Amino acid sequence: MHTHNVNSKTATTTPPERWVAKSISHIFARASYNVACMEEAHAHYGEKFTRWDAYVYFVQGAVEALVTVIHKSFSRHV
User: Fold this and answer.
1) In tens digits, what is the pLDDT along the chain, a chain of 78 residues?
2) How far, in Å, CA of 29 to CA of 32, rounded?
3) Sign of CA pseudo-dihedral 68, 71, 73, 76
């Protein structure tokens, strides 16, 4: 049986440095995942996948992840 009595004043939250590092890691991971998915889609449909496509899809994935991170950040503080 757990006997931890933790109230909201003594419980620690995630330090800002850790939150920023996790957010940046999440943004890069989603951007890379977006590139990998689109590369597979191009291969499936027989389209040429260029370096420019990789840049565009990376930025698109990073922006989508950034919007998600910002939205979650503001929804926590409101």
Assistant:
1) 555 655 555 555 667 678 888 999 999 999 999 999 999 999 999 999 999 999 999 999 999 999 999 998 888 766
2) 5
3) negative
Tokens 């890379």 correspond to: 32
**Which residue carries 């003594």 as its tokens?**
10
CB 4 within 8 A of CB 39: no
Start-end of H helices in the chain: 16-45, 51-77
Q: Whole-angstrom Cα distance, residue 58 to residue 61?
A: 5
Distance separating the N- and C-terminal Cα atoms of the chain: 35
| pLDDT tens-digit series, residues 22-31 | 999 999 999 9
Question: What is the rounded distance in angstroms from the CA atom of residue 68 to the CA atom of residue 27?
Answer: 9
